[in-house]
Specification:
- By secondary structure, the protein is an all-alpha fold.
- It folds into 2 domains: about 1-45, no CATH class; about 50-100.
- It has 2 helices and no strands.
- The radius of gyration is 30 Å and the shape is elongated.
- The mean pLDDT is about 75.
C-alpha cells in the first residue's frame, strides 16, 4: 500500500468513517467542508472549471430570481385589487342600506 496515499484511488470496497470528514460530520451540501472526506488527496477535491456551465447556472439563477420577483409583484397587485374591490363592495352595500346616492 502507499504510505503517503499519493497513488490511492477509491474503490467499491473502501470504507469511509464519519471521522474522515471535517468536523466529524458528513454533509450532503456540496459547499459544506464536510462534503468531501479530508482523507482524499487534493486531486480529488479540485475540479476543472467549465466556465460555460458556470455561466449557464448563473443565468438560470438570474431567471429564477426575476421570475420570483415578477410573481411577487403580480400577487401583490392582485391582492391590492381584490382588497380595493372588497372595500368598494362594502361601500356600495352601505350606500344601499342607508339610501345614499352619489
Amino acid at each position: 500500500m502507499y504510505s503517503d496515499r499519493s497513488e490511492w484511488k477509491p474503490s467499491r470496497s473502501d470504507v469511509i468513517y464519519i471521522n474522515h470528514f471535517v468536523g466529524n460530520t458528513k454533509s450532503v451540501m456540496s459547499n459544506n467542508p464536510g462534503y468531501i472526506p479530508k482523507i482524499f488527496p487534493t486531486q480529488y477535491k479540485n475540479k476543472e472549471v467549465n466556465y460555460e456551465q458556470v455561466l449557464n447556472r448563473y443565468n438560470r439563477n438570474v431567471k429564477r430570481c426575476e421570475s420570483a420577483i415578477n410573481r411577487q409583484s403580480m400577487s401583490t397587485n392582485s391582492s391590492w385589487k381584490k382588497s380595493f374591490k372588497r372595500r368598494k363592495l362594502r361601500e356600495d352595500d352601505k350606500n344601499k342600506r342607508f339610501n345614499i346616492k352619489d
